[in-house]
Amino acid sequence: VSKLMRRCRLLLTAYPAEYRRERGEEILSTLLEAMPPGRGWPPARDVRALIIGGVRARAVANRRLSTAAGIRLGVLLGVAIELSLSAAGFLRDFVTSSAGFATARDTAASGWRELMAGLLIAAAVTLAWRGRSRMLVACAPAAAAAVIWLLIHQPAYDGGGYTVTTLSAGAAGSLLLCLAALIPLAGRRERPTRSGLWLIGLLVATDLLEGLMPGRLFVLCWFGSVLIVVIAWIAVDARPALGLATLLALGVVTIFGDTVRLGRANYSTPVLAQAEAMWPLYALLLVVGALALWRLRRPQAVR
Amino acid sequence: MREPTYFLLASLLGGPLHGYAIIKRAAEMSGGRVRLATGTLYTALDRLTDEGLVRLVSEEIVSGRIRRSYGLTGAGSAALRAEALRMAKAAQLVTGAEARLQRARIGRKARTA
Hints:
The structure holds 2 protein chains of 2 kinds.
Chain A: H1 2-12, H2 17-34, H3 44-62, H4 67-98, H5 107-129, H6 133-153, E1 157-158, E2 163-164, H7 169-185, H8 194-212, H9 216-236, H10 239-262, H11 269-277, H12 279-296
Antiparallel strand pairs in A: 1-2
Helix pairs in contact in A: 1-2, 4-5, 4-7, 4-8, 4-10, 5-6, 5-7, 6-7, 7-10, 8-9, 10-12
Chain B: H1 3-11, E1 17-18, H2 19-29, H3 38-50, E2 54-62, E3 65-72, H4 74-112
Antiparallel strand pairs in B: 1-3, 2-3
């Protein structure tokens, strides 16, 4: 029975945590009572109904938020994704440079500044996520200072005809904007849910894996599955779409800042080409984000 | 009103029932046609509670597990009755027409005999 119970509990994770606390035991006992004896798994129709019921309960819970709170949490998610991606990048740079992988870089000079910026940004995101506004007011400016320090003192190395730096001016501008935005976005009554952390983790893992395993097929498969997961997510909850739309806006800030500062001709060509190749995806995200905003305006329950 | 909802509400006509009892009663009343899956049952109970057709009546602990019983509200009974009347009228359209035809046929036979 304990194995069966474990499996049933696993199925119940389709429901939001708050719902499970209130109804989980009741659903579990009905499920066990209704099950024919001697089975290792619930019947397929029960499995299907529990998954659909869980997804519906999530959708209903998400639509109970006010529009303002939904938008705020969506934007917070986007800002948190952007900052987490940067923090993970800085920490990866620190690890690779101190392990001696980055040959062209002045490892001793750059590594510690990147470590500092990465850790402070990660701390600011954590504080904002947990709604610790007072500590965030101290931490976000410290993280901003670390970003500026890194921007000014970073070593530049020759990338074959153009200068490569760890942190471009546009990216630094976008980071500073995010850190400033964290303070008003955090610390209200409604908190972001734990499922948002999964999305952040998924995107950070994507970014790190892309750097570690540069196989085209692998990257395509991974990106494809991430895209499917994100789209499925958006069907239940509008906030990830808003978060991704925010991420898109921040990407535009970065590219705009760098193009203005360096001029198109001096811009590092691979980065610009990569950014331009991403435009269809950005456009798709914009449409999805707009749809998400529209859906947030309708607070009715799912039938 | 969809058939599973109808039989769910109808199962509560005899008084409040807990989750598994609702599943069993709905299956009996529908002649085995409506077999509510546990997930479907609770989604429906949530919706019907929000709409004010069903309410939580009692909570008890049976062999270490929580057991909640649900009952019809006044609005729930009224909605069920309205649905039953609507279906009876719809049925009458067919059964009434068949009866009239039958009577006409008998009448013709009697006149020709």
